[in-house]
Structures are given as structure tokens and as C-alpha cells.
Amino acid sequence: MTAPRSMSTATVPQPHHPYKVMAVYKFAALPDAEALKAPLAEFCCARGIKGTLILAPEGINGTVAGTPDAIDALAAFLFSTGPFGARLAGAETKYSFADTAPFLRMKVRIKPEIVTLRAPQIDPNRQVGTYVEPEDWNALIERNDVVLVDTRNDYEVGLGTFQRALDPGTQNFTEFKDYVASNLDPARDKKVAMFCTGGIRCEKASSYLLSQGFEEVFHLKGGILKYLEVTPPEQSRFTGECFVFDERVSVGHGLELGTATLCRACRHPLTEADRRHADYHEGVSCPHCIGDAAKHEAAAERQRQMDLAKKRGATHLGDEAMSEAHKRREQKKALAEQSRLANKG
Fold first, then answer.
1. C-alpha dist (Å) from residue 20 to 41, 100, 140
2. CA-CA distance, 221 to 218, in Å (whole number)?
3. What pLDDT, in 10s, does the model give residues 86-127?
4. Alpha helices in 101-158 (DSSP H)
């Protein structure tokens, strides 16, 4: 599985954009995850960093964004200078850049798993499949004796995937085990190659397949994002765009901003074709949720509030919006108090 190293060159946008985005994960022993939550949240909030980081006894996973200096400081905090010590050193980390803030607020969450599969018999720290560098990926997936599986969910696959990849049709990652049981056979499928967004799901998926008796299991190191970062478009075997879990919605080659948007009613990613569909109504409904009246009613009200906020020149979502809402409440209270005193006089 070797390919000429010259086939790939870094195409990630240069850091002249105001926001730097960091996607990070690592399986590492963090029995003190609960105690680490507060100092991590305080560090990020003090530097205006926003996004979500998940801590669990098995490690860390998440994506955040901030100024380049803030993200560089966070990297040092996570990997060397902070309370994690050296436990997160060598984490799978990818950087990209954005012109607008891709997140609205900062969240640090404690969960049982950093990616939920509910397969307690596996341990990615002990056993995973064979990593395949992006430069070697094309040569592997073009082999006839390799079964290529997309481990992501159906709405992600719908935006883009690798040529010849099998779509498990899952709605969440825990269903992947059922797909394996029904569709893959270790006696027949001797070589299985898998990929996901950033690599983390494949850590668990490959560990799971090995626990089920599959002999040769491969996974794309760094996931689709790393592949799109370093692979020139003319050499790419990835078709479409890659869904990302932030306000960018999708990215393409070079990790440039994609064209997909989100339905605000059902949160399903929308292609340009979806937005031309007769069932698409901005902020209210899309072809994927047209029959859900309850979601449409809530979405319509949300859109109305967003339109009102826009007319005021205010922000509807995020920390800034919360601050503005608090300011408006205080102004109303002050006016009410003034009116009360005037009437009393």
C-alpha cells in the first residue's frame, strides 16, 4: 500500500483568516475528566474560544475556534503546559481557518465515551486497525480485494463520500454494529478499509471489527478532513463535500468552505438541489422534514425572531445574543423603575 509521496501537497488555506479552527481527539486515560472540565472551560472562555470539547475517561474529542493566538495557546495548554500533562501529546489535531465564527458559544461536556458506540469489549488504546496515510489511500481503495466502508451516518454520506464506498445507512454510530452483523463477514471480507470525518469513529470501528474476527482492517489516518487538506482535487477520489459539525456545515478540498447549509427545523444538511426543492422554505422546512408540523411551527417562530433581531441589527444566537438579551431586560427594568418613581411622585 504505497503511493508516490509527491501526489499530495498541503492545500489548507493560509492563516490570514481571523478565525483558526482546531479539531482534536485522542484516546487517553483521563480518570480525572470531571476535575479537568472547569479549568479547560475557564481557559477557553478567557480567550474567547468557542466550540465544544468532550471529555471522558477514555479521552478527548471536539472542535473549537478562536483567534490564531488563542488556539495556539489552547494547543499548548492541552498537550504540555496544562493539567493534562503529557497525556494528550500526539493527539490527532487538524487546523483550518474561517472568515466568520463557526461556533456560537463554548461548551465542555463530560460523557461516558468521546464517540458513542456502546461496545465495552473494545479498547482503541489497546487495539485498532492499520492506519493508512492520505497519500497511500487511493492505492488501497482501488484494489479489488478491499471492501470500502463509510462509517458515518446517512445524512453525512449524502453530502459526499469516496467512490465505491458502501453506505451503512445508519442514523447514529451505535447502529454500526448492526450493519456489520448483517452485511460484513470475516470469512468473506478479508480486507476492510474504513473512513470517517476526522478519524475518531474509525478508531472504534476498526477496533470493533478486529474484535469480531476480521483479519485485516485499515482506516484513513486523519479522516476525510486530512485527505481533503493534502490531496490535490485532480487526484481526489472523494466526490462532493464533507459534513462538519459546526456553522460551516461542509468543507471541500483544501478545507475551503462548502456550499451546504442546515435546515433550521430538522438540522439536516442541505445541498443546492435541496434548496431548490418546492418543499424548502428558508428557516422553516426542507424536503427531509416536510411532514413534521411540530418542527415547522417551532422553526417558523425561530425564523421570525431571527428576522426581528436582524431588523434591530442584533444577533439572535450565541453568547453575544445572550448578552444583548440581558442588556435589553435591564433596560426594560430601568424604564419600569423610572415609570414607577414618576407615577409615585
1. 18, 10, 32
2. 9
3. 999 999 998 888 888 889 899 999 999 999 999 999 999 899
4. 134-141, 154-157
Calculate what percentage of the chain has a pLDDT beyond 90. Answer: 70
What pTM value is reported for the model? Answer: 0.77
CA distance 184 to 174: 16
pLDDT in tens, 284-322: 889 999 877 666 566 566 666 666 666 666 655 544 444
Q: In whole angstroms, how far apart are CA 7 and each of 138, 225, 232, 242, 254?
A: 10, 17, 8, 21, 14
- Residue found under cell 418542527: 295
pLDDT at residue 234 tops 90: yes
CB 28 within 8 A of CB 22: no
Residue 122 near residue 204 (C-beta atoms within 8 A): yes
CA distances to 50, 54, 229, 251, 258 from 255, rounded to whole Å, are 19, 23, 6, 5, 8
DSSP for 120-132 reads: TT--TTT---EEE
* Radius of gyration of the chain, Cα coordinates, nearest whole angstrom: 23
Please report the domains of the chain, with CATH numbers, ordered by start residue.
19-110 (3.30.70.100)
**Angstrom distance (rounded) from CA 174 to CA 177:** 6
**Pairing mode, strands 130-132 and 59-66:** unpaired
The answer to whether 207 and 219 have CB atoms below 8 angstroms apart is no
Write out the three cell numbers for 320.
Answer: 453575544
> What are the residue numbers of the active site?
196
Q: Look at residue 9 in the predicted model and tell me its pLDDT.
A: 35
Smallest Cα–Cα separation from 267: which of 180, 179, 155, 176? 155
